[in-house]
Backbone:
């Protein structure tokens, strides 16, 4: 089992994106923003502190987003590999090209049928 | 059979060495097949160790007394549950359990990450397997559980074994060691990921996200292990104590403290990318303290710390710790640039600083415990004079530190991230402070005139109020928006941010624990020599000896007292403290009888019989106020940690946008 | 005092016939002194007053000894000194606050002090310069503002 390793046993090429860590950072900042909003709503923060912290977080967010765009722009090859990965049927609208996490019958964006022939 | 077991262990040892080499060489030479074969080795090791453990268990259950281990730790008369528990009743078996748990964890880690972190995983695997290799080395050579009893050249068999130490024949003790081990071993995983990401200079904090649940689960097991041990001591040892500050207990407490510090400080890294070096240091110290703890706990030689250098496996452990610590320190120092953080502290009055203080206080208590444990050795080396460092030392040093920590538990969560203003803090703390002071005044009025106890009661009330206010405010905000009732809103609130509100519940558990500890300031005890019909009083209880019985079964002989408990003239309970003498080991043990109530426990111990000719029964009676809150705290902690482990309900919808968005950038994604 | 003498006599009688008795010797006075003395019976970390092992070969005789010395009218200090003379400093439950042993008490708090200093240094070094965010940030922020706002609206 250990020594009889064959080529076909190799796991398929990983689907890791080159901006994985930036995406995580971005999600984290959104989380922080959400937290901040909630804490402000329950009255833990003064208006001034809230405004300041919010601006800071948004600035950081913008920086991360621009870093993502730069990386993606700089590595078209990587992006292409990703693009080739076939999406699950029913997750991409054939009409308006909106993407969804789960397979749907009708597009949530334009309302047309997602899978050909679905009524 | 013993040959098969020993062979499995030897094979596993070779394979663990192979896995380390294959992973590293495969990674360096860029040969994915070699890396894969290293991963396969991890699964094979699990199979081999499962076989070995199965064989040992079979030996214990079937009573194969040719095996030295079985003969020493099991006997025919023992119930099945304790025959199984004998697996970890002695050193060899418990090291095998350690190794088996580690191999299980490793297999799970390798399997769940088989497609992820292709850069980092080979190193993570290598580190896991290096630790595995070390333990297998111990199991294969100096502490082999499959050693047989032999006379000359022939294998012999004893008719019956010694049996498990009778003190360990108690249900919490049967699960306490595996729990503690699940905890000890579990910290290898975050450590391996941390080192893996350090070696490969992973961008971001992937190791933290991946291991967050491991760390929490592990922490939960460790807390459970420690508290089960305390519960065992309380219910079995017959002196009513749950914590004695002996080196073994301290050794299990140390990694728990650093792990707690890690769980807090890691939030700073996740939220703001700060404290990267510090978190590396904390997780490494936790891991090495776990190894140190295993060594102290399981060497079975501890009574005093001095003894450890004399044991055969002591040398192995010292070598492993020295090499491991040196390598870790080198690695961290070498990668300081990678660990550099660009985040700043916006304000001194912020959640960040409260975490700094939390870490400081936790580590200070860790240091105090460590210092107390090793001070006798240092002192003897310097002054040549033996001294004692007993419970009063730890209590005197740790009580103020603990109270300060309790204060921080209340204050920290109310301070906002990044910055906060005095004004909002004053508003937030008005009610908790008022209630805390009120509780102090009431307790003092009720006669609890003990400085630390009063402080503790006040702080418990303070922290409890802050937590309740957090829940109240949050659920009210949600209720006003969604028009749910408050209870539903509270569930919704917790579900939205399980980590924070689960954390609050764990804090609540800490309040209960402190409440339980504080009760010890008001303990009462008395010892009486009694015969049937005698009466005595302790606290508000009148006790009457109704009967004294004795008897005998195949495992032990016993004596017990039937004691009638009355309060204010009416009988409320009957307690039956018992003493047993186990036949196999001729060791007496106490089966204490406890009337557990939330306000106080009445605790009776049948300590023995006077041998002055009168054959009076010696009954030790104790009243322990509030001690039950420790166990309430334990269950609350379990609930809180499990809530933390549940994923939060609100998924960040935007973040998928980009990860799958290479097809069409920034396309909106709908749930 | 007669009570103590009676107890003492009882204890002596019990001791003579190698009695294992409940040694109900823990009067508040004995407890007061016993709490300052370590039980040296081996692995236990209790004091002479709090060790509850029945027939403990150290703490039971120690309690009897305390009772005897108290009956002779010795003060607490004298009794403790007597134990130190017999057993050395290890007879004390905690290290004495003198000479080298003072370190045992001081170090934990020194550690807190060092920690505080470290926190102070950390805060000082990491305190953000008050400088306003650079203009570039403004530009970047504006570019992404719309998207951020859209996402934020979805947050709750």
Residues:
């Amino acid at each position: 089992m250990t020594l009889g390793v064959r080529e076909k046993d190799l796991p398929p090429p990983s689907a890791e994106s080159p901006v994985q860590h930036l995406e995580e950072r971005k999600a984290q900042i959104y989380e922080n923003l959400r937290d901040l909003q909630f804490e402000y709503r329950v009255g833990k923060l003064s208006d001034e502190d809230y405004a300041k912290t919010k601006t800071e977080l948004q600035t950081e967010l913008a920086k991360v987003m621009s870093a993502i765009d730069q990386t993606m722009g700089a590595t078209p090859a990587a992006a292409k590999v990703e693009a080739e990965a076939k999406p699950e049927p029913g997750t991409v609208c054939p009409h308006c090209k909106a993407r969804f996490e789960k397979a749907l019958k009708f597009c949530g964006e334009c309302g047309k049928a997602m899978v050909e022939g679905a009524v | 059979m013993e040959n098969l077991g020993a062979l499995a262990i030897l094979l596993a040892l070779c394979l663990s060495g192979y896995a380390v080499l294959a992973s590293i060489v495969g990674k360096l030479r860029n040969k994915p097949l070699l890396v894969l074969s290293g991963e396969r080795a991890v699964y094979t090791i699990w199979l081999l160790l499962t076989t070995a453990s199965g064989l040992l268990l079979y030996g214990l259950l079937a009573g194969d007394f040719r095996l030295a281990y079985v003969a020493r730790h099991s006997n025919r008369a023992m119930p099945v549950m304790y025959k199984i528990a004998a697996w970890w009743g002695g050193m060899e078996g418990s090291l095998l359990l350690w190794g088996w748990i580690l191999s299980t964890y490793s297999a799970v880690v390798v399997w769940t990450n088989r497609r992820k972190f292709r850069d980092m995983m080979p190193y993570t695997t290598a580190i896991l397997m290096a630790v595995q290799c070390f333990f297998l080395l111990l199991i294969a050579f100096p502490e082999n559980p499959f050693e047989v009893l032999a006379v000359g050249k022939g294998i012999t068999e004893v008719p019956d074994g010694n049996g498990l130490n009778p003190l360990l024949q108690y249900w919490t003790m049967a699960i306490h060691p595996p729990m503690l081990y699940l905890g000890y071993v579990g910290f290898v995983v975050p450590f391996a990921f941390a080192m893996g990401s350090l070696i490969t200079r992973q961008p971001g904090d992937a190791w933290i996200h991946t291991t967050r649940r491991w760390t929490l689960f592990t922490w939960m097991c460790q807390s459970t292990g420690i508290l089960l041990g305390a519960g065992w001591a309380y219910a079995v040892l017959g002196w009513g104590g749950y914590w004695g500050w002996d080196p073994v207990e301290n050794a299990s407490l140390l990694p728990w403290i650093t792990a707690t510090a890690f769980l807090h400080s890691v939030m700073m890294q996740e939220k703001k990318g700060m404290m990267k070096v510090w978190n590396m240091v904390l997780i490494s110290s936790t891991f090495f303290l776990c190894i140190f703890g295993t060594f102290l706990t399981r060497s079975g030689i501890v009574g005093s710390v001095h003894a450890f250098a004399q044991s055969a496996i002591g040398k192995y452990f010292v070598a492993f710790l020295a090499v491991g610590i040196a390598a870790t320190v080198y690695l961290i120092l070498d990668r300081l640039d990678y660990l550099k953080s660009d985040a700043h502290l916006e304000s001194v009055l912020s959640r960040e600083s409260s975490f700094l203080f939390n870490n400081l206080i936790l580590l200070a208590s860790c240091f105090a415990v460590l210092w107390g444990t090793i001070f006798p050795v240092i002192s003897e080396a310097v002054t040549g004079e033996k001294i004692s460092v007993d419970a009063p030392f730890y209590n005197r040093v740790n009580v103020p530190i603990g109270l300060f920590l309790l204060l921080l538990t209340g204050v920290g969560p109310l301070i906002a991230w990044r910055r906060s203003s005095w004004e909002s803090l004053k508003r937030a703390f008005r009610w908790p402070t008022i209630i805390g002071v009120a509780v102090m005044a009431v307790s003092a009025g009720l006669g609890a005139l003990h400085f630390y106890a009063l402080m503790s009661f006040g702080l418990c009330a303070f922290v409890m109020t802050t937590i309740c206010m957090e829940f109240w405010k949050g659920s009210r905000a949600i209720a006003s928006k969604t028009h749910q009732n408050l209870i539903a809103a509270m569930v919704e609130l917790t579900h939205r941010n399980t980590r924070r509100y689960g954390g609050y519940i764990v804090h609540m558990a800490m309040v209960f624990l402190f409440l339980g500890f504080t009760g010890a300031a008001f303990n009462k005890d008395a010892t009486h020599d009694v015969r049937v019909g005698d009466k005595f009083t302790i606290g508000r209880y009148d006790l009457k000896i109704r009967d004294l019985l004795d008897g005998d079964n195949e495992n032990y002989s016993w004596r017990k007292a039937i004691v009638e408990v009355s309060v204010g003239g009416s009988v409320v309970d009957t307690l039956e403290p018992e003493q047993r003498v186990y036949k196999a080991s001729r060791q007496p043990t106490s089966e204490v009888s406890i009337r557990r109530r939330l306000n106080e426990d009445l605790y009776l111990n049948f300590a023995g019989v006077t041998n002055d000719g009168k054959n009076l029964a010696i009954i030790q009676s104790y009243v322990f106020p509030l001690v039950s809150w420790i166990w309430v705290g334990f269950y609350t902690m379990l609930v809180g940690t499990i809530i933390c482990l549940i994923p939060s309900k609100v998924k960040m919808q935007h973040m998928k946008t980009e990860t799958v968005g290479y097809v069409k950038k920034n396309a909106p994604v709908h749930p | 005092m007669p009570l103590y003498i009676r107890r003492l006599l009882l204890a002596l009688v019990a001791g003579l016939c190698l009695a294992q008795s409940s040694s109900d010797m823990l009067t508040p006075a004995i407890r007061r002194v016993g709490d300052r003395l370590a039980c040296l019976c081996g692995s236990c970390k209790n004091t002479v007053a709090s060790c509850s092992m029945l027939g403990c070969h150290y703490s039971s005789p120690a309690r009897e000894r305390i009772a005897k010395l108290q009956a002779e009218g010795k003060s607490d200090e004298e009794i403790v000194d007597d134990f130190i003379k017999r057993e050395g400093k290890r007879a004390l439950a905690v290290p004495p606050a003198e000479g080298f042993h003072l370190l045992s008490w001081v170090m934990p708090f020194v550690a807190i002090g060092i920690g505080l200093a470290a926190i102070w240094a950390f805060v000082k070094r990491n305190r953000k310069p008050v400088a306003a965010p650079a203009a570039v940030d403004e530009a970047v922020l504006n570019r992404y503002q719309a998207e951020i706002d859209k996402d934020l609206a979805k947050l709750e």
